[in-house]
Amino acid sequence: MVSRRTPRSQKILVRLAIGLVVLLIGVWLGGHPGWLPSGLRSTFEGNSNGQFVNQVLDMLSKDYYRPIDRSQLVNKGLAAAIASLNDPYSHYYDPSAYKAFLNQDNPHLNGIGIDVENESKGLRVVDVFDDSPAARAGLTRGDVIVAVGPTSLANRSADFGSKLIRGEAGSKVTLTIMRGSQKRTLNVTRANIVVPVASGKVLNFHGKKVGYVQLTSFTDGSGAELRAQVNKVLKLGATSLILDLRENGGGLLDEAVNVASIFVPDGTIVSTDGRNQPRQVYVAKGGAISTKIPVVVLVDRGTASAAEIVTGALQDRHRAEVVGTRTYGKGVFQEIQPLSNGGALDITVGEYFTPSGRNLGGGGVKEGQGLKPNVYALDNPHTASDEALTVAERTVSAQQQ
Predict the structure, then answer these.
(1) pLDDT in tens, 27-51
(2) What DSSP character marks residue 65?
């Protein structure tokens, strides 16, 4: 049997790794002693844990062979601790990331007013905002932006192309687009764009007025914004409604209840349950539109979270037919807990259930089965027409008296 002496450098690395693991456990459990068995909880609730963590940090600051940033070490440690939960919805935000997160709901941006997706030739336009510089320049859904100025977008990321298109309001950007087999160049003047959370218009489907309302996210006040759009299209003579929740990744639970309450007059919208939270039932808030007005909810694989809560409530309560593809399947919800260092924890704290008791995530934090539509419809992003919307129009029109 041959034994080998472990080199001193390897011993140091092993000790450092052990120290970092202990640091992660100490920092995390020190801030969350309630996660521990009662026999161990008292050990971490006192000052001894804080002193121990500081001791490890002091040793690293003093003896590690390179200078280290103490706060950066803690931030990385916390991020690794949350990552070890294997929960795609739980995150640790360091102070700078949390500040950026708080500012991300700002609806103002400098650009031309389009929504795009990546493809090999460049950026395919999937939506053009009404009365935007892009709309005024003639960009339409289905156009492919292949170059910005002299820079080709072929095999480039959507983020790369989007950054080139955005710029100071009032400045011009030159876009080369492909529309079918024809190539053309457009000069577009950038502007300060306000991205609408909710929008609405009246469509004419074989002589019937169909109200089309779209909601892009469930941010603070989005329920009130959508209600205003619903009232607008009804006032314009719409006798049925399509609620478009495609690519809506969700947001605030309270706003999901507010949105569902526009269509459901009373009763359960959603219920929640968590290990450290009592079961809670959320009911409609009143003020719903007439139940005689037919409603269709338009969804796709990007419909998730709060958007699924609304879809599930309207489907379970037989208030609307669901048209599109199966939804994402996120059956859990998170809470953001600010921390004393200026950062925050955004962690999964419970599950939600539709009025019939369905949990869309299958009882876990991974992607679940989602909601199955009543009428399957798939949009082809490579065409100028919206095939799924056409199916939704036909479906809701058939319900009109």
Answers:
(1) 444 444 444 333 334 434 445 666 7
(2) S
